[in-house]
Amino acid sequence: MARITLRQLLDHAAEHGYGVPAFNINNMEQGLAIMEAAKACDAPVIIQASRGARAYASDIMLSRMMDALTEIHPAIPLCIHQDHGNNEATCLSAIRHGFTSVMMDGSLMADAKTPASYDYNVAITERVARMAHWVGASVEGELGVLGSLETGHGEAEDGHGAEGALSHDQLLTNPDQAVDFVTATRVDALAIACGTSHGAYKFTRKPDGGILAMQVIEAIHEKLPDTHLVMHGSSSVPQQLQDIINTYGGEMPQTFGVPVEEIERGIRHGVRKVNIDTDCRMAMAGQFRRVATQNPREFDPRKFLKPAMDALRDLCRDRFERFGTAGKASKIKVIAMDEMAKRYAAGKLDPQIATAKAA
What we know:
Layout (H helix, E strand, L loop, with lengths): L5 H11 L3 E5 L3 H13 L4 E5 L1 H7 L1 H14 L5 E8 L2 H9 L4 E4 L13 H17 L3 E6 L24 H4 L3 H11 L3 E4 L21 H10 L4 E4 L7 H9 L12 H8 L3 E6 L1 H17 L6 H22 L14 H9 L5 H8 L1
Parallel strand pairs: 1-2, 1-8, 2-3, 3-4, 4-5, 5-6, 6-7, 7-8
Helix pairs in contact: 2-4, 2-13, 5-6, 8-9, 8-15, 10-12, 12-13
């Protein structure tokens, strides 16, 4: 089975200059559609589950689903990632259930609502990284608070998101502090704040440099060229998907997401993992609405789910191709987690730290 750690996958992405989409899932249909897209274009993939998804589907069900997906598609390197872990217990329980990677989001306190201090973030992220590396699992940290530069607020998703007004400094990751953070925590990937937020309603207009600060990514990459950067809240909220939803009875106000061309710009400057959830939901929800409207007598769930899966598959394949992920799966020789653990213990996975110290 081709389970891969985030660190190995992003190392390969950095070496070959591509990015990897990270798709959130809650159920079997999403997993099947994502893996079908990956197989169709020979792409490695990150499938991630939030705490909300784990509560919805249960850890046992998600674990068995991941087993099945890797068995059905053994040639596709699959990283199974915990999205927005809020404390040590959340992260370690994910690893026990077969996740190969976890995010410790210490930018917020354990309630996943209150912005945390820098010292708290460093301390808890370092602890999780140390424990995860003992067993070969990878760790993503976050510096800065995910939220909108346009509104000055965060957006909750699955119970995760800052509440209240956020300062400009909180909403943008400081490049110099990023160097200190990576050095102190030894994270394998760093999620940064650049004006993106959860959900569909990211921007009221097509974003420019005033509300989507791609220059922050470029500045961090210049200081930490060997650190894998992560863009959260990076659904593009395509107009076509908005139109499908509204054509078939939806009432979705006009909104704008992160343009794919801006994500491609980020990939050229060290972004290796790109989180996508809202686009996937919209692709499926539009087909649910279409089937219900065109066939009001239909009650077979499969008649709703099959076109929804097809729409999700097509969306995922587009992202694999746009991010340069397509064609890379067959070029990766997966390293087992126990071997990764040995490499962490021997200090062989520390070049990011050496670069940070020299910055």
